[in-house]
Amino acid sequence: MNEMNASTRAGIVNIRVTDITPEYAEEILKLNTSNRPIKRTRVDMYAADMMSNRWQSNGVPIVIGTDNILKDGQHRLAACIKAKSTIKDAIIIRIPCEQSTCYDIGVARTVKDTASLMNKKDDIFKSAKTMGTLRYAIVAAMPSTRADSTLSKSFIIDEASKNKSALSFIHRYLNGNNKIQGITVAPVWAVILNAYNSGYPYEKLEHFCDVLVSGMTEDKKDFPIIWLRNFLLSAKAGTGTRCSSKDKFLRTQNCLHKYELGIDTSMCRASKEIFYKYQLPEEI
């Protein structure tokens, strides 16, 4: 354990770098007497990262005031206990109470902000639409017993790094000059992302997307795509049948699947089977 003291105008700050075991976390949490209510979804998110060895100490300390009250770190400590995992090289500081009254008043980081901190410079990491589509694809493949709130920003970014080719494919439709506002919905492009990763014929998938965003074709075989486009646009404008995100996902999937097989249809209802599914990591 490394330890040092530093002088400030408010008093002495004690800084320690140490490993926090679940047992030690329980001891520190006994000082958690006047904090905000714990958010269980945040604890689940941190615990999931700890259990899959994605958690890393990033320099943000566990803060205890000179009044012996825990000021910051309750979610990390609770996750340590839930995951039965040791937080390596954690920083614990004890600071004068005058310096512990301004926590969590800043703006939360987005996935884009976190990607920048992780030195991810590709355009796909800078697009909220592209990263949002990936998140939807992952969530749609998760067991119903799991909540998407357990997915950390760093996890989404790691998955994006593994799927750069597929994300680059949909990125140009979501952010390029040929985008159309009504079709930039995550459930639709999540299906296309999954299909790309499933080995859907590239030229056929590209043509499907071109017709979907442009609405232009002279081939009767493309009419199911036009029907899907009109359905999505009317649902977006509120002039057609209201449908959930899941319904849009399943209708798009059914249309894409029938188009791949060359099945002629003028209607593409929501499918009951998942034809294209995101491949979840084993540890999720």
Mean pLDDT: 85
Strand order of the largest sheet: 1-2-5-3-4
Name the poorly predicted regions: none
Count of alpha/pi helices: 12
What is the global morphology?
A: elongated
| Main sheet makeup | 5 strands, mixed
Estimated radius of gyration:
24 Å
Structural class: alpha+beta
CA(first)-CA(last) distance: 32 Å
Number of strands: 5
Summarize the structure.
The protein is 47% helix and 12% strand. The protein is an alpha+beta fold.
Please provide a written account of the structure.
- With 284 residues, the chain is an alpha+beta fold.
- The protein is 47% helix and 12% strand.
- It contains twelve helices and five strands.
- The protein has helices spanning 22-29, 40-51, 74-83, 111-117, 123-126, 128-141, 153-162, 164-175, 186-197, 202-214, 223-237, 245-261; strands at 2-8, 11-20, 62-65, 70-72, 87-95.
- Strands 1-2-5-3-4 form a five-stranded mixed β-sheet, covered by helices on one side.
- The relative contact order is 0.11.
- The mean pLDDT is 85.
Task: Describe the structure using short key phrases.
single chain; 284 residues; alpha+beta; five-stranded mixed sheet; 5 strands; 47% helix
